[in-house]
Amino acid sequence: MITQFYFLLIIGILAASFQDFYVRKTVKYIDYKLFYLWRMLITSICLGAILYFFDSSNVFKYLYVWNINNYFWAFITILTVFIFILTRYFLLENYETSYIIPIISSSSIILSLIIGYFILNEKIDKYKIIGSTFLLPGIFIFSGSK
C-alpha cells in the first residue's frame, strides 16, 4: 500500500511538472484562451467516451439526491478551477515556467495549510509549520529573481 502511494505520488509529480512544461510550449504558439477551449473540448470528448464505454447507468442518479448545498459547492469548485486554469495559462504564456510554477505551488501549499486549519479544522503539526517557514522565504527569494 505504501509502495503504491509513493509510486502514484511520483507519477503525479512528474505528470504535473511535464504538464506545465507542455502548456508553456503550447501557449507560445497559440493564445491561452484558445488552448483552454481546446483542452475543454478534448476533455469533454474523453469523458463522453468513458461514459459510453463503461457502465455509466449510476452516474446521473447521484445528481438527483443532491441538495442545493452540493450544487453550490460544485459550482464554486468549477468556477475556481476555471479561474485557476485561465490565470495559469496566461502567466505561462507571458512568463517563464521555472519562475511561475514554483511560486504558485509553494504559495498554494501555504494557503492550503491555512485554509485547512481555519475552515476545515485540520490539525497542524510542527513539521507542517517548519516546512512552511522554509517555503515562505523561498517564495520571496524566488520572486525577487525577476
Radius of gyration: 19 Å
Q: Could you give the order of the helices and strands?
A: HHHHHH
What proportion of the residues form beta strands (DSSP E)? under 5%
Total domain units:
1
Helicity range:
over 70%
Give the oligomeric state of the chains in this entry, treating copies of one chain as homo and distinct chains as hetero.
single chain
C-alpha termini separation: 42 Å
Content-based structural category: mainly alpha
Shape: globular
Structural write-up:
- The chain contains six helices and no strands.
- The chain has 146 residues and is an all-alpha fold.
- It has one domain (2-143).
- The longest helix has 27 residues, at 68-94.
- The model has no long low-confidence stretch (mean pLDDT 85).
Task: Report a brief summary of the structure.
The chain is an all-alpha fold. It contains six helices and no strands. The longest helix has 27 residues, at 68-94.
Question: What does the secondary structure layout of this molecule look like, with pairings?
Answer:
Blueprint: H1 2-27, H2 32-53, H3 61-64, H4 68-94, H5 97-118, H6 126-143
Helix pairs in contact: 1-4, 2-4, 5-6
Keyphrases for this structure?
146 residues; mainly alpha; 6 helices; globular; EmrE-like
